[in-house]
Amino acid sequence: MSASGVEVTDIITLFESLLTETPISNTSEFFLSGGTSLMAAFLLAETMSKYNVEITFTEFISNQTPAQLHAVINEKLSSRNTNRALPSGTHDDPDQEYDLSIAQESLSWFLSGFDGFAEEDNGIFNISHVWSIKGPLDLTSLNRSLNGLTSRHDALRAALFPKAGKLKQIFHAEKTIDIIHRQLDIGSPAEGATPEVIISRNTAAIAADSKQPLSWRKGEMLRCFVYKITEEFHVLQLVFSHMAYDFVSKEIVFKEISALYKDPAGSSLPPPVQYRDYLTWLAAYRQSSDYRQQISYWKEELANAVPSITIPSDRPREYQQDCDYYRQAGCSYQISPMLTTRLRTFSKQFGVTPFIVLQSVLFLTIRKLSGEQHVTVGTLLANRRTAELHNLCGFLATQVPVHWEWNAELTVKGLLEHLQGKLARAYDNQDASVIDVVGALGLQGNKRFHPLYQAVMIFYDTVFAPLELGEAQAQELFIPQDFMLAVNELMFMLTDTPETIVGILLFATDLYDPGTIENLLSVYTNILQSFVESGDQTIDSLLKKINP
């Protein structure tokens, strides 16, 4: 037993709660044992919650074993330096006004064209989930579970409104969700179309419902559509405003709808964390010296960064000056099972996550195609640095820039270590508002040019719990969108599955033709193949072997 009462076995237990497929000892390295970036974030959040100490991601990279982490915790226990505990409000005043969160204000800022803020949503950033439901769907239980969900989470009852040149929000005490019933084109009875064919025929109608604007002012953060095909086959669509929902919220929402459908009391669910409490904490934190240090970090880190990319495009970047935004399309992508296996083995050999390798290859791809000396790529972080925030439904997730300067003498191992350190420091400084960072750098944006980066990589390495609706079988569907707004020139979204890594490269169609993007993906695959077979050669020699 240590003097503080914390034993290394306590840390091993934390590791084992996340790394379920690998035996853990006090010398097991987290990432070599199959840990992911999101798992590491949860581990640090649990550590902060249990021991009231804050361990940065940068510190964790250098202290990945239970024994090392135990030593760091004991060293820090005397200072107990965290200031991240959420206040617990009484929420008696329904008219109390709150500022937007950093994530919310960034979205509103983008929708305004990086100039002020947007007063209402236009539906472009709605987040939609669609399922085919085979079997008996109890609409009463579904409706009750949705209203139970909104009752538990105040972010789904938020109403946003302009005041004194900025957006504010209040939280309604109640918000009723009514199911919207839609008819689909099922064809003639003689046609005998299967439910799957009917869904395929109606994807445009389902997609159109997903892009109907949700009213911020009315507090409309969730909408539910049910499309009846037969008594035993339905399509369910839930549409969320991004202002109240992000990718971590998905896990919370699916789990709670499933539980509330089965048990209206939700007796198996933990007490919900309220978005208002997070906003109260954030308002105070943004006045702290810690927050100012984060802004200072980004000001120094991005001082020499170049936000643009010069990959040869099919049309000039000044194309269509009268167009408010770039339009967007997607090109699907899959890493073969064999290459995925090699990637995972390679990642463990070098003690990094597959994401670090995949992002390193994206940096090299942009370098190969553009010759850029400085490359900046955005990436998505959950922005939930305490355990209680992992149970918070709301928009917290944030994108952070990772800036890299070309160095021909850097080896493959050196690049991985360099970018791992960059990402760790980005994690440690993820609370900073992009608006405050842009202001500190003296930059300006426009409607088709993000001020900090034009390429983004997002990697989902967590399997979310499925939606469970009693005896019915729910299968999530992908519904293609005819028109999407381009947040950046390139957004590479990848998902880790048991067999392979799949994804989509979203691109600005005002700049690139599909053939150009297919060539980019071919170069990316070739570099990835060489990268994981490279040993530890220099990145310059590796790129010289790749034909553009």
Summarize this structure as a short list of keywords or feature phrases.
single chain, 548 residues, alpha+beta, Non-ribosomal Peptide Synthetase Peptidyl Carrier Protein, Chain A, Chloramphenicol Acetyltransferase, 3 domains, 5-stranded mixed sheet, 15 strands, globular
What does this 3D model show about the protein?
The model has no long low-confidence stretch (mean pLDDT 88). The protein has 17 helices and 15 strands. Helix 6 (139-152) packs across helix 9 (247-262) and helix 13 packs across helix 16. The protein has helices at residues 8-18, 37-51, 57-61, 66-76, 102-111, 139-152, 195-201, 203-210, 247-262, 275-285, 289-301, 337-350, 354-370, 412-428, 434-441, 514-532, 539-544; strands spanning 98-99, 127-134, 158-163, 166-171, 179-182, 222-230, 233-240, 327-335, 374-381, 398-405, 455-460, 473-477, 484-485, 490-496, 501-508. The relative contact order is 0.15. The chain has 548 residues and is of the alpha+beta class. The chain folds into three domains: 8-76, Orthogonal Bundle (Non-ribosomal Peptide Synthetase Peptidyl Carrier Protein, Chain A), CATH 1.10.1200.10; 98-276, Chloramphenicol acetyltransferase-like domain (Chloramphenicol Acetyltransferase), CATH 3.30.559; 289-464 and 480-544, Chloramphenicol Acetyltransferase, CATH 3.30.559. The strands form three sheets. Strands 10-9-11-14-15-8-13 form a seven-stranded mixed sheet. A five-stranded mixed sheet has the order 5-6-7-2-12, covered by helices on one side.
